[in-house]
Amino acid sequence: MSELFPRKQVMGFVFSMVLTAVALLVYFLDMSFTAGMTVLLITAFVQAGLQLVVFMHAGETDDKGSIYTNIFYGVVIALVTVFGTLLILVWDM
Amino acid sequence: MEFFERFAIPHPSPAIYASMVAIALTMVAIVAGLTYFKKWGYLWREWLTTVDHKRIGIMYLISALLMLFRGGADAIMLRAQLAVPENKLLDAQHYNEIFTTHGIVMILFMAMPFIIALMNFVVPLQIGARDVAFPRLNALSFWLFFMGAMLLNISFVVGGSPDAGWTSYFPLAGTEFSESVGSNYYMIAIQIAGIGTLMTGVNFLTTILRMRAPGMTLMKMPMFTWSVLVTNVIIVFAFPVLTVLLAMGTFDRLFATHFFTTTNGGMDMLWANLFWVWGHPEVYILILPAFGVYSEVISTFARRNLYGYKSMVASMVLISLLSFLVWTHHFFTMGQGALTNSIFSITTMAIAVPTGVKIFNWLLTLWKGKIEITTPMLYSLLFIPLFTIGGVTGVMLGMSAADYQYHNTMFLVAHFHMVIIPGVVFAMLAGLTYWWPKMFGFMLNERIGKWTAWIIGISTLVAFMPMFFSGLDGQARRMYTYSESTGYGPLNMISFIGAVGLAVGFVLIAYNVYYSVRYSPRNISADPWDARSLEWATHSPVPEYNFAIVPQVDSSEAFWDAKKKGHELFKGEYEKIHMPNNSGVPFLMSCIFFVWGFSLVFSMWIPAIAATIGILACMAHRSFEKDHGRYISVEEVEETESKLRGAS
Amino acid sequence: MKIDHSLPLEYSTEENRLKILGFWIFLGAEIMLFATLFASYFTLVDRTGSGPSGADIFEITPVLIETIVLLTSSFTIGLGVHAMRIGNKKAMLSFFAITLLLGAGFLGVEIYEFVHYAHIGAGIQTSAFTAILLTTLGTHGAHVTLGLLWGTAIILQVKKRGLTPETANKSFIFSLYWHFLDVVWIFIFSFVYLKGMM
């Protein structure tokens, strides 16, 4: 039975639950907006990285260069789009 | 009868009725012709169900040329209307519809498929592959594009064309100001074609990343393949933005949501913002493969290897990133603060740097080269000065403070036409002429070709240079007429003459095809231009499996090395070749997509739901079917090879 | 078809390797798809018109259930792929089935949530905020729904055809898709719900 539950994945799952619990602190504690957003940004991106590496096996083949470049490029452009849009339409309007 | 009233044209004219009759007659003629010559089976087996990248490329090419004439007819009507002041040829509504469809058709249904046509035909050959990574998906991409294009094209005879500009800004494109179904067509037709393009992006990235011939590292790829790689990176990350944007636009129009309305919190500026988040990278999707074509053509006909290979690659990669960082320059006047405009002015001007690097690399390739003026080379040489005019005026527009003067004037129209026509259209015509012998096994006539290139080159200047001046004088774009006292009349008349010249040029291209089909010699070699990359190492026309033996590569100009330095490309024996099977499902599924789109345009929910189920059923069929492709035996390869060797 | 036995089944043919890389690239496109939705969401979040704001309508309980259910399903499908790699077809099928059941549970809660929103006057036509909220959640939900159909098709195929290079490849690609949906949900959970209720 135990070979069906590899340690790495179980630990990954536990860690993702811990991250969720930490993120929930912003709901239960009375935090400033900045502190809350910092917590959320960190937990969300760590959680995403965790899924990518532990569960999605992104780095297991010789295509890992292409895969990580692709994801990294996507994330950079995604952030540019989100923050650029906010700059144009909300912060600097 | 009430049901059918929705399909009526809201604003008809004799010209539209005449087009209806013409379309009906053409359809009847096609059906009758196919039946009379018993070509239905041929059409189905060889084209509609094909998954061969070369045939798909040729189908893209035919669609692109058809759309070029459709968009060109629009352009002539626009320029004719503006040729003299107070002209009554078109009314305001028709003028709106025509400039809208002119933009959509030329960008999305002419330039895009033209580029994808060359990509499809050339890239697998240049990298020494047998096909693309996902041949079936490739067929689906084409048919989705085709059905999207057809859906938009029927709009002017069924229900009315979109009339809010190719940018379709809200609130103008919302239901309040655009009551006809025209803008529904815009949202849904482009959505369908866009999904096809996104799949092309995934397909070609995978192909180029994993299917290169042994020895061809990334830095040994031909420059056209590099440009396609970078282009597809942009496609993959830019087109999802369009998907979401069009979905939100569709919701606003069909389900009365408030994304872009002026009430209940809606924000019309969000449309403009997201449109250009996609739209600016789209400009580079168009121009980068064009740069790739020029690189191939210039190094072939200057008889030199490309100057600054690494800086060419670096500048393209940089352009791909910068292309996502400049979108605000399309709406400097929208009302955001000086900080934003300054940031985007700087990124905009920065993008001129890698572009300039490329221009200098081409010039330095020509320097000391043994230049041979062929038709493709002529287009490339005309491109450099003309494109520079377009590029430099772009830097002028990129300065946000000055942009308040130029914004939405004919100066802008002149700028982007001077970029897109010399940049993209010349490149596509150069590429078409250059790769034509590889596609069809005979050459286009050079004399007619050179005449055409000169006519198109000069007409481009005649048509668009006057607009820079009328624009600086204050002539606004998208205005259907102007009074005589403005003094714009003579400049617009010159533009009209240029437009007629362009039309003559495009008709000459069609004539050249006809002339060459009839009179061109068929006994040409597989390498008629004395070219440098792998696609010229196989026969013309190319056999189904591309290369009987997979080539071995050790430089970016493997074929040139094989000819001049004795590099051995094809080592080893013939082996049986694995090829994918044809399939009718992509065509069928795209037809269902057409029904789906048409139903949504007219808010007919029951057929729309039925079509959705049909689409899911096609996907399920694909999931469950067992298709392992087929093998071409060694004997068959030998037979084909010996036959083709005799022919070329 | 050349099969390379030194690699896990899902990577064992060139066609399989192409498909896995192709799917990763597609996921890159999906990142941009959701990024566009998020960009629009953050732009429109305070534009509530005469309708309610996020703080007025969000409830922590269903959101927490959805999060835990989906995170668990991401874990179980990871175990499913692991079972597939050690050749345990039965365990793999069980883990995949559990994953889909959890997915269905998630979807059930999400449907409840949507009905609830509509009931309290936060329908898709209410304001720019509700439109983008429901579109963002709905796009994720539609992905989950498609995932349920797709996953069922894969379970049927593995059951009938066994673990072949083809079925293993499909199962692995499906697991990538499912994990990705989990990542997207984490961002929705953090920046739509928790930020809205903060």
From TrEMBL, chain A:
One of the GO BP terms on file: electron transport coupled proton transport
Reactions accelerated catalytically: 2 a quinol + O2 = 2 a quinone + 2 H2O
Gene Ontology CC: cytochrome o ubiquinol oxidase complex; plasma membrane
Membrane topology: Multi-pass membrane protein
EC numbers, comma separated: 1.10.3.-
Segments passing through the bilayer: 12-29, 35-55, 67-91
Gene Ontology MF, one: oxidoreductase activity, acting on diphenols and related substances as donors, oxygen as acceptor
Location in or out of the cell: Cell membrane
Keywords, comma-separated and alphabetical: Cell membrane, Membrane, Oxidoreductase, Transmembrane, Transmembrane helix
InterPro entries, alphabetized: Cyt_c_oxidase_su4_prok (IPR005171), Cytochrome_c_oxidase_bac_sub4 (IPR050968), QoxD (IPR014250)
Pfam families: COX4_pro (PF03626)
NCBIfam families to which the protein is assigned, alphabetical: QoxD (TIGR02901)
Function: Catalyzes quinol oxidation with the concomitant reduction of oxygen to water.
Family per record: Belongs to the cytochrome c oxidase bacterial subunit 4 family.
Protein name per the record: Quinol oxidase subunit 4
Gene: qoxD
TrEMBL record, chain B:
Keyword Cell membrane: yes
Keyword Nuclease: no
Listed PROSITE patterns: COX1, COX1_CUB
UniProt-recorded name of the protein: Quinol oxidase subunit 1
EC code(s) of this entry: 1.10.3.-
Provenance organism: Bacillus aerolatus
GO cellular component terms listed in the entry, alphabetical order: plasma membrane; respiratory chain complex
CDD domains in alphabetical order: Ubiquinol_Oxidase_I (cd01662)
Pfam families named in the record: COX1
Any Gene Ontology biological process: oxidative phosphorylation
UniProt record similarity statement: Belongs to the heme-copper respiratory oxidase family.
TrEMBL record, chain C:
Major enzyme class: oxidoreductase
Keywords: Cell membrane, Membrane, Oxidoreductase, Transmembrane, Transmembrane helix
Record carries keyword Signal: no
Cellular compartments annotated: Cell membrane
BP GO annotations: aerobic electron transport chain; ATP synthesis coupled electron transport
GO terms for MF: cytochrome-c oxidase activity; oxidoreductase activity
PROSITE patterns: COX3
Keyword Transcription regulation applies: no
Membrane topology, record value: Multi-pass membrane protein
Predominant cellular place of this UniProt entry's protein: membrane
Cellular-component GO terms for this entry: plasma membrane
Transmembrane domains' residue ranges: 21-43, 63-81, 93-112, 132-156, 176-194
EC number in record: 1.10.3.-
Heme-copper oxidase subunit III family profile domain mapped to chain residues: 1-197
CDD domains: Ubiquinol_oxidase_III
Reactions catalysed: 2 a quinol + O2 = 2 a quinone + 2 H2O
Function: Catalyzes quinol oxidation with the concomitant reduction of oxygen to water.
Family under the similarity heading: Belongs to the cytochrome c oxidase subunit 3 family.
NCBIfam families, A to Z: QoxC
Protein name: Quinol oxidase subunit 3
Organism: Bacillus aerolatus
Gene symbol of the encoding locus: qoxC
